[in-house]
Amino acid sequence: MGKxxxxxxxxxxxHGNSDTLCDAFLRGAAEAGNGAEKIVLREQKIxxxxxxxxxxxxxxxxxxxxxxxxxxxxxxxxxxxxxxxVYFYCMCGQLKTLIDRCCPSYxxxxxxxxxxxxxxxETGADTFEETIACFRxxxxxxxxxxxxxxxxxxxVFHKGEIGGxxxxxxxxxxxxxx
Length: 178
Known about the structure:
Elements: E1 4-9, H1 17-31, E2 35-40, H2 54-58, H3 67-76, E3 79-87, E4 90-91, H4 93-101, E5 113-120, H5 129-140, E6 146-154, H6 167-176
Parallel strand pairs: 1-2, 1-3, 3-5, 5-6
Antiparallel strand pairs: 3-4
Helix pairs in contact: 1-6
């Protein structure tokens, strides 16, 4: 039996560029014999962490929304893929909000392979560096978390532009390597 692969699409647009990469990765992972599931953050109700520290004492968040169910699926997965558009040289707010809400369970999110798929309008050498640094900082908090792959898809902004590039094929190949 293959691994349980969970992809989290943070694209605010249905079939947006980073969402397309997410789908291509999952197709490759599934074809390689792995279980593949996708969570679309724009379809979830996830509030901001309030910093109340309730989770530190009780092991769960005081907010009643979709974050606990998403994080439960993350804990059950062997591989976690996060796909995000890059805005102002950082991951989008939807993904960062989910990451912040992982606080009550972050120790249970370790021991997994993580992949980061990113899209951006710019193509410069440093376009993705802050996003990667932020993602690495998150993984540094998780015991034995491993950044297994990164895809930097620059030069795409408008919905659908990714289709005219080789990036979906690269995401597919990354998924096949799981």
